[in-house]
Amino acid sequence: MPTTRQYDLILVGGGIMSATFAVLLRQANPDLKMIVLERLDNVSMESSNAWNNAGTGHAALCELNYMPDDPSGNLPSAEKAISINQQFQESREFWSSLVKDGVLGEPETFIHSVPHMTFVQGAKDVSYLERRFKALKDQPLFAGIEFSKDFEQIAKWAPIMIEGRPSSEIAATRIEQGTDVDYGALTEQLFAWLKTKDVEVLTSHEVRALYRNNGLWQVAGKNTDSKFEFSSPRVFVGAGGWALKLLQKAKIKEINGYGTFPVSGHFFKTENPELVARHQAKVYSQAAVGAPPMSVPHLDTRVIDGKTSLLFGPFAGLNLKFLKNGSWLDLPASIRFGNIVSYLSVALKNFPLVIYLVKEIFKSSKQKLESLREFVPNAKTEDWQLYEAGQRAQVIKPVNGLGVLQFGTEVISSADGSIAGLLGASPGASVATRVMLDVATRMFPESQNAWMKGIANSVPSYGLKLNDDPSKARESLSATAKTLKLKA
Ligand SMILES: Cc1cc2nc3c(=O)[nH]c(=O)nc-3n(C[C@H](O)[C@H](O)[C@H](O)COP(=O)(O)OP(=O)(O)OC[C@H]3O[C@@H](n4cnc5c(N)ncnc54)[C@H](O)[C@@H]3O)c2cc1C
């Protein structure tokens, strides 16, 4: 018989979301009895691992998908971009407080200043980027953003993108406050601290069953050589791509109608010191027609384990796994009577996405190199190696009886707040602080007043509209830049 130990909270999954949630809770309540269950033999091995994601501190400084033109060609308000920026700023504030408290190590072990740029070609996109720049340049959270259509200026910002490029209409924006984040290192450091604070972190423990018994959740599964079963009044499902499957097992009605759509990703990588030294930016561009926002091409400086490299991608692929270390049965096994209409309607309504994916899957190495040369005209095959990043599980949300592809992170919780989980990807890890604070308010509503004091110290912008208060926005940007050793 497996042992049954009782906890105040069981967290399933050893990624950045569980780590962030557990740290927030441990700081708020040193007595909360928590356990983390991770199926792999270490934490941070799936999407949160540095090599499995692109490490962008998503703050809408360069990603066009947070502010696209509307169907009639008019730029919408900057509201969504400002909201994403504020959420990342809350993460910067939280990480700053953790550095000061000694929970996290030196900032350069997980975050670096890397300017964020957007680069576009052709009259339509140049006009769009100029309008976007004008809409953002006076927003306090976007202070310092620059725009240029000049070859020479853009060559100063990103020389390898201009060398060998025939004369054409181009434009770029650039902002110094952009970041590259090693979410893997961050996650590992958070778990290392949690272990010193009496949080049990059990690896090689795969959760296979979740059910209610006498008002408690029973969480059962298998480790390498035996079975386990734990109980708790509350469960957080931070299982990444497998959250859908576990929430379905828990049989909460709030998951009915939801599905997830897996998209794998490959990147080109180079460690050629000459190239690495000559490109210091994360440069995002316009997505291909039909491409999901997370497939926007970008050329990035990455700093992982103290070593700098460049990556370009992603190249999307279709496989049926919801996790990189998942199963080919993930997608078929997730189909239920309650969500089959969602899956079918998404497939029918998103035909351009289907076409895009088919094109991506059949892209030859030569075509992939051509895509890279749109960014780096003189790219040489021998410098760039293709590698497989993490698996994204895009949310399919039921809306009016049909499915809608949702681009973002979706919190699903039972009506009584006893169980909550996360579906979806981008902006993902960047906004882990906001997402987990929202989950905390759903799962521990009675504790909010007591906790708000601590949260106000570590995430002072939470609940405020930073961008509406220029002096507060400046103060938050420069204080976090100072602690995290970033450019303001
Ligand atoms: C290609 C790619 C690029 C990305 N780029 C960015 C980016 O630039 N910026 C950004 O902010 N975000 C990015 N993201 C998104 C970001 O990586 C994720 O949002 C974030 O890492 C999710 O964290 P998580 O803790 O929810 O999931 P994960 O890190 O996937 O962790 C889930 C954990 O749960 C475990 N698990 C699953 N099922 C079970 C079970 N039954 N029992 C026990 N354990 C289980 C898994 O093994 C895994 O360790 C990217 C993602 C991908 C795939």
TrEMBL record:
Species this protein is from: freshwater metagenome
Protein name: Unannotated protein
Signal peptide from the UniProt entry: none
Keyword Transmembrane helix tagged: yes
Record SUPFAM superfamilies: FAD/NAD(P)-binding domain
HAMAP family, sorted: MQO
InterPro entries: FAD/NAD-bd_sf (IPR036188), MQO (IPR006231)
Cofactor(s) needed for function: FAD
Residue ranges crossing the lipid bilayer per the database entry: 7-25
Matching Gene3D superfamilies: D-Amino Acid Oxidase, subunit A, domain 2, FAD/NAD(P)-binding domain
